[in-house]
Amino acid sequence: MRTLVTGGVRSGKSRHAESLLPATGPVTYVAPGPAIDDADWADRIAVHRAARSASWTTLETHHLAVGLAVEGPVIVDCLGTWLTATLDERELWEAPPAEVTAVVRRLVAEAAAVLTRRTADTVLVTNEVGLGVVPAHRSGRLFRDLLGLVNQELAAVCDQVHLVIAGRVMRL
């Protein structure tokens, strides 16, 4: 089963996504986010790690297709941090929008191709960005537009999409 779990920040989507996979079996937890030298960020990561089963393995990679290619159940948390890392790594924040979109589309197509071949349970966590105001800055608008594209492309190859709001789950 391939499941995309979306929702707002602190909606409970990670907790829900983790509950979709076996707590006692082997699971690969793909952490695709950027490396940030920030105490608050480090604390958030520590809390997430402490909540995970000891039988789960963490794979830190910015290459989404590589993370999805591992054997067995996989959780990717989250696509928003993956997108940020991708834009940072390739220095695309100020690039022309068409160039940025082409790069992201190519990477998402690679990930979607791997995802469609997976037979083990796979859960993708992402942020829902379409419910807020239009960001005031270019980088915010770029991120919102690209993550919306990423979410749509990967949802199209998932068997289920779950929307989490205030800890409550709606299966779409």
Question: What report would you give on this structure?
Answer:
Helix content is 44%, strand content 21%. It has six helices and seven strands, in the order E-H-E-H-E-H-E-H-H-E-H-E-E. The chain has helices at residues 13-19, 39-51, 64-68, 79-89, 97-117, 138-155, and strands at residues 2-7, 27-31, 56-60, 74-77, 122-127, 160-165, 168-171. The chain has a seven-stranded mixed beta sheet with strand order 3-2-4-5-1-6-7, with helices on both faces. The radius of gyration is 15 Å and the shape is globular. The two termini are 15 Å apart. The model has no long low-confidence stretch (mean pLDDT 93).
Give the tags.
172 residues; alpha/beta; Rossmann fold; seven-stranded mixed beta sheet; globular
Chart the SSEs and their pairings.
Layout: E1 2-7, H1 13-19, E2 27-31, H2 39-51, E3 56-60, H3 64-68, E4 74-77, H4 79-89, H5 97-117, E5 122-127, H6 138-155, E6 160-165, E7 168-171
Parallel strand pairs: 1-5, 1-6, 2-3, 2-4, 4-5
Antiparallel strand pairs: 6-7
Helix pairs in contact: 4-6, 5-6
